[in-house]
Amino acid sequence: MGEVQGWRGRVFEDFRVGDVYPHPLGRTVLAVDNMWFSLLTQNSAPIHTDHHYSARTEFGRPLVDSTFTLALVTGQSVTDVSQNVFANLGFDEVRLPAPVYEGDTVYSRSEVLAVRESRSRPDVGIVTVRTTGFNQDGVVVITFTRTVMVYRRGMAPEIPRPAPA
Fold first, then answer.
1. CA 74 to centroid of chain Cα atoms
2. Which of 149, 159, 18 is nearest to 81 (CA)?
3. Which single residue of 54, 90, 94, 149 could bond 124 by disulfide (Cβ 3.0 to 4.6 Å)?
């Protein structure tokens, strides 16, 4: 039997405006995720880290740090959108229409909004997607657009692989 190649992600030529990619991995957000992320980013808002305080808010429990939600949903999209990224150019129109709570499971999908060749770099193209994250009940918790430079076919650096033993 021969070696079977795994998924290496889309390259610029694979993107089409209107394509929708349901990202394959969901992720349940744990209390420790919220606590560690808040601590790592020096976010001192008690709504994220103090259960006693949070119980007295209209939410009745801690809210997951919104930048964790952005990072999580961005990460979920990598396998379909930016596995072959040259550069992340920016995030726009970040919206958080509903809170994420500890214990929620977040899923996501991305829709291709724009595809164009780079005017300055012949080895990449520019892709813009709208990514939507939603919880286990289908409630949208985040939307944003992201623009990335993606390598063209055959232009991405080779991933070093160890020689077979």
1. 1
2. 149
3. 149
Closest listed residue to residue 72, CA positions, set 96, 43, 50, 51: 96
* Angle between the N-to-C axes of helices 31-40 and 66-81, in degrees from 0 to 180, rounded to the nearest 10: 100
Q: Which CATH number fits domain 12-151: 3.40.50.2300, 3.40.190.10, 3.10.129.10, 2.170.130.30?
A: 3.10.129.10
**Counts of helices then strands in the chain (DSSP H, E):** 4, 6
How much is the average pLDDT of 144-160? 91
CB within 8 Å of 74: residues ≥ 6 apart: 131, 146
Residue-range domain boundaries for the chain: 12-151
Contact 65, 99 (CB under 8 A): no
Measure the CA–CA gap between 148 and 115, rounded to whole angstroms: 10
Give me the chain's average pLDDT, please. Answer: 93
Cα separation of 134 and 139, whole Å? 5
The pLDDT assigned to 159 comes to 76
